[in-house]
Amino acid sequence: MIELIKGDITKTECDAIVNAANASLLGGGGVDGAIHRAGGPAILEDCRKIVARQGGCKTGEAVVTAASNLPAKFVIHTVGPVWNGGRNGEEAKLKSCYANSIRLADENGCKTIAFPNISTGIYGFPKKPAAQIVVSTVEELAERHHIEKVTFVCFDDENYSIYTKLLAELK
Is 32 a catalytic residue? Predict the structure, then answer.
């Protein structure tokens, strides 16, 4: 089942929320900063342990931490691609963000997962093509990985409108 909401991902109740992280995993702006602020210092502490062990997170990959003060069990941190005109494998990297997040959710026994609009803010990925990639990836992989509900959490009106139209076309 796919659900679409307009709101704040840090308030979303589910097994795992996905963080649009940066490679350092040490917090930042946008969704990343909001998750770190709302979740509390334990998330940053877990991220520092991951960095010490593996040196951060590469674009398209994902790591998992506890959710601390958030209404979820886990935070899955994934690093989206910076848009460079589509010439550097950005589409495949974005698909990997969602695929690796779903895989990690399944490995951690999650049945519900919430995604923000990865890479469509300051990273500049065009919103409509991103939504098309995301929805097709999630449809393809969620059921196979025992995910019962995927929630797309849009913070802005433009992404919400794009997802509303795209999901209506699929029904």
Answer: yes
Residue 45 belongs to domain spanning: 2-170
3-state secondary structure (DSSP) of residue 76: strand
Q: Which two tokens stand for residue 149?
A: 């509900």
Q: What is the DSSP track for 16-48?
A: EEEEEE-TT-S--SHHHHHHHHHH-HHHHHHHH
The one catalytic residue in 32, 46, 106, 156 is: 32
Quote the CA–CA distance of 50 and 106 in Å, as a whole number.
20
Binned at pLDDT 50, 70 and 90, residue 135 comes out as very high
Residues 34-46: tens digit of each pLDDT: 999 999 999 999 9
- pLDDT, residue 63, reads 97
Q: Report pLDDT digits (tens) over 65-93.
A: 999 999 999 999 999 999 999 999 999 99
Which domain CATH number covers 12? 3.40.220.10
Q: Specify the number of domains making up the chain.
A: 1
Q: Would you say 152 and 137 are in contact if contact means Cβ atoms under 8 Å apart?
A: no
Pair 73, 113: CB distance under 8 Å: no
Phi/psi for 72 (5° steps) reads -130, 170
